[in-house]
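Exam revision sheet. Question 4 asks you to relate a sequence to its structure. Input first:
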Amino acid sequence: MLPDGFVPKECEFWDYKTTTNSDAVSKAKTVLQAVSFYNAYGGYIIYGVAQGAKKGAYSPLSLEAEIVNEQQLKALIQDYTGEATDISYRELQVPCDRRDTLFGILHIPKRSNKTPPVSFQKNGPDVKPRDPLFRAGEVYVRLQDNCIPAKDKKSWQFLFGSRECEEGVKDQLRLSTVRESILDHNLPDRNLICSRFFGRDDIFERLWLWLSDEFSRTRVLAGEGGKGKTSIAYEFSQEICRTKPYDLQRVFWVTAKSKQFAGLRNEYVETPETNFHDLQSLLHGLCSGYAILEQELENASVSLLKKRLQEALKVFPSLIVIDDVDSIPELDEQKRILEMALQVSAGTSSRFLLTTRMNLTSSSDVCIPVSGLHEDEHRLYLNYLNETIGGPRITTPDAELLWKTTEGSPLFTESVFRLYRLGMPLNRAIKEWKGKLGEEVRMAALHREISKLSLESRRVLLACAYMGEAATVELKQVTGYDDVRMTTCIAELQSLFLLAAPEFIREIPRFKVPSNTARLVVEREKELVSDPAGLKKTISNLRARNRVKRVNRVGEAIAQGNALLREKRFDEAIKTVEAVGNRYGDNPDLLLMWGRCYFEKSKEYNNERSYNAEARRLFKKAYDLGQRRDLLYEMWHQSELDVDHPNGALEVSDAAIKDGIGARSEWVLRRMKAMYTVSWRHAKAQNVREAQDGFGQCVDDIRRAIGKGEVSQFQESERIRS
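Answer key, structure tokens:
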């Protein structure tokens, strides 16, 4: 205490509280603070201090005894985190303002450097509906006077570092996140990988959290070529070297890459060193790097090499980076390398990080997908490139267009910038790059993946590129593949990131080919299938049957619904259209499709009246909103007949004649049939005048049709006799 009160600040080491409450949210807030202190320097929560209206003004406020239940708080911390913490609580009387004041002091120890940061294992209580105080998987840390979740790289470096506090300028406490010495490593020169690194905080968060995972010691960075997988692995390795986490003593880097494409030069350049070309050479190189004698390695089997490497990694816990696994042509060999990493790391403190263009594992826990830079990250990278060439300021519209065109790929961005550096205006450079001038870099980024595809998957890929977006059921009908073969193709294409993550209409996924992949696929269409023209014609015929312009979600839902109807999957078709109908309920094309789904379902279920009733309602609504396709009148008319409602069929016929739909004589005959049924019912009900008028109209309709030469004499005589 100072003579005039309390130290007028809260900081990394202490936090003031007036008192504590017994409700669940208040208790969880105390847990959050305790965990945050524990992950940082440790510290104190001091109870019995009130903050005044003026910032930095604190005053003593005596509290009741035993406001904190130490054992209950310990149990809560363990319940939320799964970790036991040695907190302790004491109360003491302090003379203050000529009277004794009772304070409570909760001490939270500092986490040992030999243990990983504590994360929450379950959500905290909701402070708002569906808004928990903290979430499972989050790691909180005390920075200055705030308890915050670790999100950026500096927070993670601090958490895994020594967490030693140093005196800073102006007596302010600052965080020490970098040690004087760095971890032992064999990393290549930064300029060979990437001279400057930007963003990727979301991926780095997953990688840092991985270091806290005791049960999973392997991760795979997977994604299309040119998205920056190697750069991410390299930057993370450097951070590990600087931070020196509690259980690692070394970073060891190996690569299978023999050449890489330089976007700014538009050509391949040889890499200084290629460390392995298969599993055997990889294991031999790793064992040599850990000082295992050559005579022990000579003629050693793969199994023995694994054993020797595992023994070495128990002595020297390491982060081993295996870069560009997909440079090995055999897929089976790539998978064996992943299996080796999983096997060798077991029972050690070592970790393996692999980079590849192919998702070698379907597990979302092991595989971290790498996409392009986020828009804000891409703008920073763009500014850096522009500074290096001394170009004029890039406008926001041009920057946005470049980001969308390159999908945030650093390699593609450099390739466009090559044209910009040669004096081409940026918007023109983007346009030219989409065509022939960008073909080389697209080939460099994607040719390896496409060349590995099976013949069936190539056909599915090209079909999807032509269609823009398609559901599995549409792709099946275009290619003629059954469910098993189509599922296999989709899995293969997704593992190589050649299909974008699916969007859904209802529960049915819709796939699309990323724009730059689609460009390369269409450019190389004859290499993918022997009959691209035939495939295009099949797609054209499919779209002609749908007869709707596919410009938005409505067109996609109609196409998907039609495909499902052809397979008699009526309920899925209805759900597909219904999901979009909730947003576009006034679209006449969608309403027609919606009604058709119920109409065809009623046919399958012996004209079930409830389905027909819904179809009629939707057809009427589509008509009122301007739908005038022949198909509407045909199905609407039939649905009225199916529910034995000739008056409705009569109204539809009149509307078709008035609107000039189809052959007039056909609709005249349909109107005559409906009028005949209505008139006959009037006759049965002894409504003689109505019956006579109706039969007279029937004769008039037949004569009109005969007058146009559209009805045979036989048809006329049959109608009149009736």
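Marking note for examiners. The longest helix spans residues 664-684.
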